[in-house]
Write a structure and sequence with these properties.
Helix 1 packs parallel to helix 3. This protein has an 8-stranded parallel beta barrel, surrounded by 5 helices. By secondary structure, it is an alpha/beta fold.
């Protein structure tokens, strides 16, 4: 199982939100590059990055910071946030990142999803951000009436690298992931599923690993506030 420590970027800083609420921002490190180096020094190989600024304003981004993390570490980067057209996906992939994560555009534009996965097979991860089993859009600020399960059935034939399943009601709350629905997602297709949202302690990680069906986990707030020890996490 792959563990992805998470860095959320806003205004050039490493932050965390609660339930995706920008008003609940907590700054954890003024230097995302230094934070990435900490993860690498602890033995992690992968890093999950979200450009929060770009999710709400396509004219803003933290691309220079992402490039700096890539330049100054050997981490394999998984990058998302506001990637809603082929141009922005191509731009981020040009940084030699491992894969990119798209969400809103994949849900609202099936032609785009088809085109980008065909152009970059196994380089596109699909971020399904869910509130009460329905997909949320545009940095979680809009709510659709599309069931996450129905959507997966429609696109499971595409060459997608992974699905990142986030229960918004769990995100940043440290109450444990929505294991039942995450498992259900993993059973609906052959696309690897990565758990996200709500991981609170090392036992949550062990439960995910024990399923042998969920291929990875993204860990954020629990790392930053010390609920999960990085040394213990790196061993898993």
């Amino acid at each position: 199982m792959i563990i992805y420590p998470a860095i959320d970027l806003r205004n050039g800083k490493c932050v965390r939100l609660t339930k995706g609420d920008f008003a609940s921002e907590t700054i954890y490190n003024e230097s995302p590059v230094d934070q990435a180096k900490i993860f690498e020094q602890k033995g992690f190989k992968y890093l999950h990055i979200v450009d929060l600024d770009r999710t709400i304003d396509s004219k803003k981004s933290n691309l220079e910071i992402i490039k700096s993390i890539k330049k100054n570490t050997n981490l394999k980067l998984q990058v998302g946030g506001g990637l809603r057209n082929l141009e922005t996906v191509t731009e981020v992939l040009s940084f030699q990142v491992e894969n990119v994560v798209i969400g809103t555009a994949a849900i609202t534009d099936s032609n785009f999803l088809n085109a980008v996965t065909q152009k970059y097979p196994m380089k596109i991860s699909l971020g399904l951000d869910v509130r009460n089993n329905f997909l949320a859009l545009k940095g979680w600020t809009e709510q659709s009436k599309v069931s996450c399960f129905d959507f997966l059935k429609q696109m499971k034939h595409l060459p997608i690298k992974s699905i990142i399943f986030t229960d918004i009601n769990k995100d940043g709350m440290k109450t444990g992931i929505n294991l039942e629905d995450t498992l259900k997602m993993s059973q609906l297709s052959n696309i690897p599923v990565i758990a996200s949202g709500g991981i609170s302690n090392i036992e949550d990680i062990k439960k995910i690993k024990e399923t042998k069906k969920i291929k990875g986990a993204i860990v954020g707030r629990a790392i930053y506030d010390g609920s999960i020890n990085l040394d213990d996490l790196s061993k898993i």
